[in-house]
Amino acid sequence: MSIEYLGLTSINGPLVILEGVMNASFEEIVEMKVDGTETKLGRIIQLDEDRAVIQVFENTANMSLSNTRTKLTGHPMEITLSEEILGRTFNGLGQPIDGLGEIVSDIRRDVNGKPMNPVRREYPRNYIRTGISAIDGLTTLIRGQKLPIFSGNGLPHDQLAAQIVKQASLSSGDDQRDSSPDSAGSADSADSQISSEYSDRRDNEQFAVVFAAMGVKHDVAEFFRRTFEESGAASHVVTYLNLANDPVAERIITPKVALTAAEYLAFDKGYHVLVILTDMTSYAEALREISSSKGEIPSRKGYPGYLYSELATIYERAGIIAGCKGSVTQIPILTMPGDDITHPIPDLTGYITEGQIVLDRSLHQQGIYPPINVLPSLSRLMKDGIGEGFTREDHQDVANQLFSAYAKVGEARALASVIGEDELSPVDKQYLSFGKAFENEFIGQDIFENRSIIQTLDIGWKLLRMLPKDELDRIDTKLLDKYYDDTRVK
Question: pTM here?
């Protein structure tokens, strides 16, 4: 029989203190009944003998020291799961807000998850196509990877997130097709056979997206909802929304709820799940607010000293487990305060994740979408999920050459600003032309444009032909001879 505690010791913002507690557990969920009518949920975040600090998931404005009755549930926070969550919208606690009723299932999971056994982790290999050239071509997203997007206030990360949700898919057989002149006509080569087998394996694979928004405004939430519905993507998307006026305590639990759903779909039901978390800065600021309420000693920029471990707890829930058909891939999105990439949130995120995609304000001001700055962007697992049998044999070399050529564009622009463009060498002028075309045609694309990996690589070759052949020193000679002079690769 559960014990009910009458009254509270103190209330401090989203935190309440209850003394005289017996047999309580860390992370245990409590039910709090206010004035005998309204029920609120909270979780125990600190225990000191018989003194419990409880984080309330809802507003505490109408709570007083005498009008609250508290009951321990005996279990951590759990959510109900089934495949019926696909196409549904929930709040940050996993409660339905789309008017379609509760999820009916016997399966309930602890939102804190369980650590993946490092021995059972499989190395990520296959890639996820986003339809965005700057990502697919140069910072390829690999299944099981965690690849954050570093943005800034006012940059179009919301539009980019929505576009990825709409377009993301397991690469199809078309993406495996070799469009070189050697493959035109008959397709009896070993490469074609590998691609065909690889494509057949993917035909039976299921794909889903779990989208979690933290601290977003109502108009942003409506933008995501409308975009998913109009694009037809909503049927394979699970959405968790924590609005800006929702309690900060809910914001802290939202990514854990979303990842619990993703793990269920991936490891119980065999889906390949892409998880998009936006905005991790709102999550970190909620942690800072709760930490301040607890009276903890702040660390860098006022954030708690355990910010790194909290972020790692979320990011490390991505991966592939041996023996399980599915996978969990993460794209966390964070806005860098003051566009400062050395700020604690992007800084610590960079230590945990496998690369980053960086949005650039100057490209945005030029009207280029998506404004991805490819030079500081990278995907550390890219090399193991591209190339022959995955995308196309020339993918890695083309990416290396585009990176190298665009770096030289920066040098040519710096020189032109000193001596003037007319004084540049003919090759430097070619690099200037290449840089402008690269930003407008390769990086830049329409918000509704969904490019295949073949289209992306062909655009890359089209741009590389603007440079002398002897400048392309990052591409294997055989590939250069095969693709450089092929005018059909446009």
Answer: 0.89
